[in-house]
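ligand=flavin-adenine dinucleotide
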Amino acid sequence: MIINHPLLGPRDASEFTYLGDASLINRPDWQSDTAAAEFHDYLYLRDNPAGTHRELWFHEQGDRSWLVVTRDTLTHEILATELARDVARKTGRGK
Amino acid sequence: MRYSALAIMRQVLNGHRGWKPAWRDPEPQSSYDFIVIGGGGHGLATAYYLAKEHNAARVAVLEKGWIGGGNVGRNTTIIRANYLLDGNQPFYELSLKLWENLEQDLNYNAMVSQRGILNLCHTDAQRDAYRRRGNAMMFTGSGAELLDAEGVRAMYPFLNFDDARFPIKGGLLHRRGGTARHDGVAWGYARAADQRGVDIIQNCEVTGFRIENGKLLGVETTRGYIGAKKVGVAVAGSSGRVMAKAGMRLPIESHVLQAFVTEGLKPVLDGVITYGAGHFYVSQSDKGGLVFGGDIDGYNTYAQRGNLPVVEDVAEGGMSLMPMIGRARLLRMWGGVMDMSMDGSPFIDHTGIDGLYFNGGWCYGGFKATPASGFCFAHLMATDRPHDVATAYRLDRFRTGRMIDEKGVGAQPNLH
Ligand SMILES: Cc1cc2nc3c(=O)[nH]c(=O)nc-3n(C[C@H](O)[C@H](O)[C@H](O)COP(=O)(O)OP(=O)(O)OC[C@H]3O[C@@H](n4cnc5c(N)ncnc54)[C@H](O)[C@@H]3O)c2cc1C
């Protein structure tokens, strides 16, 4: 698989390590009253779709950036790549 | 028809014209007491033990394709009981006992071969860990022997003992482990279940569940609605997709594992060798092909094929352990989609929905579990109580802090 890095251009997927579902960006609030239940769902439960899936890849052998990659889990086709930082900022996360 | 030497002789005399199909091809009935979704090894074994151990009469297996077309026909056929943790080892020992009697029980040649499994170790720490694991295995009667490097050399002199990075220091030998013919296991269970009245319905995909007020009434299929008192799901790599139709999210991601077979060779390897440090395992099939594999590809996928980096990684692992493997030509490779659970261990449990039961999360190790998985899932579905050796396989174990982290690597599927 070739991942089209937004800054570096096309790179072989073997330069990256995989973390999992991109929803892992949305860490629950540890101070909420229901934090234990929310962290359980966040850490362990998955939608696991057959088809389009947004996921986190770490460019470990490259610039060490985190990407959100949109990929078809049935065909291995990669539909979009974004910097995880940009995705997080769009949802109102700081820094 | 019972298979026997005499039955074969009779067929020889009449030119093999008298063999009958091994199981019926029935139309689905409008309702059943028990429906098992998924005609893989686990689903077929569950139906068989429901009929045999619990006298269930109205049982159906629904399979979207043909039985044995999933992981039961795609794996590298290794069976063993060399686990460590309490939640696991007694379960796999029960499975091994069932394997040992499987062919007599089913009247079917599943080519169960206890050719022995050797886990190689390469460091002092790994040897200590194997000593501990071997003790855990001996507690459940599975048998274990710790070999030093000379002991390994006597068995397999062709291995690369002096690899600079991973010199072979010894191994844990599990003589009762070995291999079984994967298709034979599916066919044997199917035939034996059919003979006990189970309807095996192929080309019948479950497309939804009919659930009212938290109670399951039946399943929607490509061949119409079928009512059921109890439904058990055993769909291996499709668990996420199928359980989503019942509104459930699971602690599971679907990943692909690849397997490889070389051209047929003269006998060179009589047992199974695993090489944990280099992520490689190998055995030789009765047809002569070396059968081997390594790591999972490591990201979510439902494509029943893998990608090249893992092919390269597995080939490197093989070459570093067993240099002569480089002379063999690779004939075939394929992938199978597996449920990778968050701690690497399986589930056999009720769901929150009355009448709906779940069996899955077998990762890359569910073939050896086939008999015990079916036995324990049938027990749960028939009695509503978990079998003694399968009490730890709960869906809520992450919520209650009772993970079964057999490999000790943490809560992420691609680490297992
Ligand atoms: C390459 C590879 C190597 C492996 N090596 C080993 C090994 O050496 N030892 C070991 O112990 N384990 C091994 N495994 C793991 C093992 O094969 C699996 O864990 C186990 O076979 C899964 O259970 P099963 O046989 O019931 O699955 P399957 O045979 O996959 O059965 C599931 C069935 O459900 C059906 N299904 C799915 N969705 C639906 C639906 N909606 N309606 C109806 N039917 C449906 C599928 O068509 C399929 O036939 C390996 C796996 C792979 C892929």
